[in-house]
Amino acid sequence: MADILHDCPTDVTAFKEAVCVDAGRVYDSCCDRDCLEDLRCFFSPEVQSYIDQAISVRLRSAEVLNVYINVEPVTFNKGFYSCDLTFFFLLDFDLFMTPNSCPMQIRGISSFNKKVILFGSDGNVKVFSSKVTDCNDGCPSPVRSASNMPKCVVQCVDPVALNARIGKIRDCYENVRSIPQGVSDYIGGDIVTDLQNGQPTIYATLGLFTIVQLIRNVQMLMPVYDFCIPEKQCDVGTDQPCDVFRKIKFPTDDFFPPRPCNLGDEDTGCGCHKPS
Asked: Where in the chain are the domains?
């Protein structure tokens, strides 16, 4: 067993032992940018009644509420998996009822479906764990995983709010899907999904950046150099607000836009930036 040190070792060649760890390995991943044009939005009955009389709309912001993920093996390509992703967005709008009037702030929900095929290797073992849960009759029961299917992980930032417009329904079944209760609760719980062709609704355009990873738990042999004890002490946060403010660097660039440095100038961090 390696000795416990007070600091993280700086000499990375000080190899002590090799240990076997069970960790998630990323077998495959991809990144993507999607411009989601004219996503149909859904609203509560009260908000929909205002949209029926509105003349224009402006998209203020967009937020990813949840992503529902389903992973299935690709039958014709062993080791590959299809990841079906359903994104749910919460959208904030400014709704204008008359020209030159103050806007009404409303909220709606939209969704987007995306499919990605990634390599996740192959494995047919069943996994059992000593971790226990309470069963109905009060006795502990072992947790069992049906198989060691890979896990799909989705990383995304809140979408870029690009555009919104009021348009008439062209297909009454367009983008109509079951919206989970936990999502619909953000706009009151009830959502109008039965609009007929020709009725007005709002279409939004979003820019979405995503990273999708397929991860499988595997046993790996890792080199261990030593135990690492944190050097930094926990901040008790007793500074007064003004003391914290005095420690903030003066935002020079906000007052004086930086100019390119001339040849030979030193970058002092006060109004002159070296070109990259």
From this structure: 22-221, 241-265
